[in-house]
Each structure stands twice: as C-alpha cells, then as structure tokens.
Automatic annotation (TrEMBL):
Its EC number is 1.14.13.81. It catalyses: Mg-protoporphyrin IX 13-monomethyl ester + 3 NADPH + 3 O2 + 2 H(+) = 3,8-divinyl protochlorophyllide a + 3 NADP(+) + 5 H2O. This is magnesium-protoporphyrin IX monomethyl ester (oxidative) cyclase. GO terms for biological process: chlorophyll biosynthetic process; photosynthesis. NCBIfam families: AcsF (TIGR02029), PRK13654.1 (NF010172). Residues 130-263 form the Rubrerythrin diiron-binding domain.
C-alpha cells in the first residue's frame, strides 16, 4: 500500500490478531517517532528537547490509517468450494509473479542518502521528514493488513494467502526503506509501538477491496509521476529515495492488479447499483483525501519542482482511468467542475485549519467550525452527485451475460 485513505468515518476497533512486526529493534516506547541518539546533532537536540524528545503523529481524519476487517468473511469469500468464480489459474500466475520478487535487491542504500539529507535545511527539512513519516506509516499499514490476511487465509486458500504474505514482504521492505530514510534525518518511526497504539479502522471485506485497490493504484501513479518528473528535471532530485520509485511503483501496481483479480472473483461486489454507489464513494474519499493533504503540504511538492494541484490532478485522472477498468462506476474527474469543487474544498479546509490554530476558546472554535464543516460536506455531496461514468470490466461476460459494462 502506498497512498493514504482516510476520509471515511471509522469504526475504531483494535484487532485482537494484530501481527507483531518482526523488527527486533522496534520496542514499545512513549512516542511513535524518536530521535536516534547516536546521530543527534546539538542543534537538533536543542529544538527537540523542548518537546521532551517526543513527536506524536496526530490522529486526524486525513492521517494515514490502519485497517482491520472481518477475517471470517474473508475466509468464506476465498473458499473455492463456496465461491466458484475463483480463477485458480489466474491466482497461480500472480503467485509466480510475486515469487519472482523483482525488487529483491532493489532497495539498497548508499552514502548519498545521508549527504543529501544533511543538505536539506530550513522549512523543507521538516516537510521532508513528514513526507517520510506519512509514507512509512501508509506502507506499514499495508504490511500489517496483508500479513494478517496471509495468516488467516492459509487453510482456506493457500495460493491467495501466499500472495498476501508476499505483498506484506513488499510493504515491509517499503516501510523499512522509508524508515531508514528517516534515520538520515536522525529520526526513526517506532513501528512496534505504532502497531499497538494506533486505532484500527474496521472495513468489511468489500470495502477493504475498494479502498486497498485504489490505494495501490493511486500509490503507483504518485510514485511513477514523481519519478518521471525528477528524471526530466534532475536539478530537483534533492534526496535519492525518488530514484527508487520506478521499480518501487511496480510493486504497487502488482498489488493493485491482485486486488483487481480478487474483485473479479467476487462479482457480487461489482455488479449491482450498490456497488456503483460505493465505488464512487471510495473514489471520492481517496481523491479528496489526497488533494486536501497535498494542498496542506505544497512546500514539499514545490521543493521537488512540482505544482501540487497539477500533480494531484494528473494522479487523480490516471488513477481514475485505471480504476474504470474494474470499478462499475467512477467519477467524472476530467470534468473541469470536479477540480473546481476540489479547490473550493481546499479553501474551506484552510479556513477550518485556521480556526483550529486561532486563539479562541474551544467553544468558539467549535461554533466557527459548524458552517465550514457544513460547507465542506455540501461540496463533497455535490461532487459525489455529479453525473458518474459507467465503467467496468468486460470479463464479467463470462459470469453474468446481462451485466457487461
Ligand atoms: Fe508499498
Ligand atoms: Fe502496495
């Protein structure tokens, strides 16, 4: 998993079966992110000590989330005796692809990392750290979910289970690489603590499929777009992690393709009016979350020479085109009205953030927020209700002749 998906209201639920991250150094501590003492510079110690060496990631609607699901239902869905739509040969082929492990030797660091990190100073430094933290959390979230699915589906469907385990291998690798990047900035995310302390958002399996598919595909488009941009504009290549994005994004693409195959094996999640409504809802949640998040962090995108809104719209349009191959309906994101609505949401969100940062007492802040939240909700609803694009996969002809999209 690579992207963040958060706007959906969570039902907080702690998974009893949360797997342990195998990093033996990841011990529980009092904060998610800690300074690495051996490399802490006096300057950084001074600024950090004010906060008591603690910097906790805020749990907000837009923060990357951890997911849990109904694993019993997952087992039923992937039981080949119950579900005759499971295309074993397709999953076997995907498994071989994952076993090939194209990126086994890809994530190798060199001394350029630390040197580049030391050169990033001023406001960009903080925003870079935040980028690494959020990306690491999102990747790690994928690791936890896939690892658990791999464990739980082992008996019911060993092939699907093994693919999940191999995807968790990829995500652990991605999260680990980003965490090593944080060490260049004298920081480290405490993934062991994160596993235990973060709230888990519960999604039914069907929603896990929509959300993770979109998350993987939007992650692919984000990584490849940044990679291509920096290849053409090497003067903005301020930190070597971006050079790894070309192969890295292929992992995310494969993960997305696997979810596409999973959804095809569950046509009931794709072929009725409810599926169309949910598909649009998840597209909107994912696109809006990314747009609002990124517009709060324009310094990062400008720091690597991108125009934040142009970058985001490119990623949204490409993700939407890819998603239209499998989802039964998608949003008409290429209609200029969609972007106008996103921009209005950004303006409202900025006002909401300004209220939060004001000196007002909490009661007054809440009062001021009411009309803004209502305005944001009405923009969201209007975007959701824009005429959608009917889409979907022709593969359904095999299963349900009346439902060819
Ligand atoms: Fe990933
Ligand atoms: Fe992924």
């Amino acid at each position: 998993m690579a992207a963040e998906m958060a706007l959906v209201k969570p039902i907080s639920k702690f998974s009893k079966t949360t797997p342990k991250f195998s990093n033996p150094r990841a011990k529980p501590c009092s904060s998610y992110i800690r300074m690495s003492s051996s490399t802490t510079t006096p300057e950084k110690t001074a600024t950090n000590s004010k906060k008591g060496n603690k910097a906790v990631i805020k749990e907000t609607l837009l923060a990357p989330r951890f997911y849990t699901t109904d694993f019993d239902e997952m087992e039923r869905l992937f039981n080949a005796e119950i579900n005759k739509n499971l295309n074993e040969s397709e999953f076997e082929a995907l498994l071989q692809e994952f076993k090939t492990d194209y990126n086994q030797t890809h994530f190798v660091r060199n001394k350029e990392f630390k040197e580049a990190a030391d050169k990033i100073q001023g406001p960009l430094r903080q925003i870079f750290v935040e980028f690494l933290e959020r990306s690491c959390t999102a990747e790690f979230s994928g690791f936890l979910l896939y690892k658990e699915l791999g464990r739980r589906l082992k008996k019911t469907n060993p092939v699907v289970a093994e693919i999940f385990s191999l995807m968790s291998r990829d995500e652990a690798r991605h999260a680990g690489f980003l965490n090593k990047g944080l060490s260049d900035f004298n920081l480290a995310l405490d993934l062991g603590f994160l596993t235990k302390a973060r709230k888990y958002t519960f999604f039914k399996p069907k929603f896990i499929f929509y959300a993770t598919y979109l998350s993987e595909k939007i992650g692919y488009w984000r990584y490849i777009t940044i990679y291509r941009h920096l290849k053409e504009n090497p003067e903005f290549q301020v930190y070597p992690i971006f050079k790894y994005f070309e192969n890295w994004c292929q992992d995310e693409n494969r993960h997305g393709d696997f979810f596409s195959a999973l959804m095809k094996a569950q046509p009931q999640f794709l072929n009725d009016w409810k599926a169309k409504l949910w598909a649009r809802f998840f597209c909107l949640s994912v696109y809006v979350t990314m747009y609002l998040n990124d517009c709060q962090r324009t310094a990062f995108y400008e720091g690597i020479g991108l125009n934040t809104k142009e970058f985001d719209m490119h990623v949204i349009i490409e993700t939407n085109r890819t998603t239209a191959r499998i989802f039964p309906a998608v949003l008409d994101v290429e209609n200029p009205e969609f972007k106008r609505k996103l921009d209005r949401m950004v303006e409202i969100n900025q006002k909401i953030l300004a209220v939060g940062e004001s000196e007002d007492i909490p009661f007054v802040k809440n009062l001021k927020r009411i009309p803004l939240v209502a305005a944001l909700a009405s923009e969201l609803l209007a975007a959701y209700l824009m005429p959608p694009i009917e889409s979907g996969s022709v593969d359904f002809a095999e299963f349900e002749p009346r439902l060819v999209y």
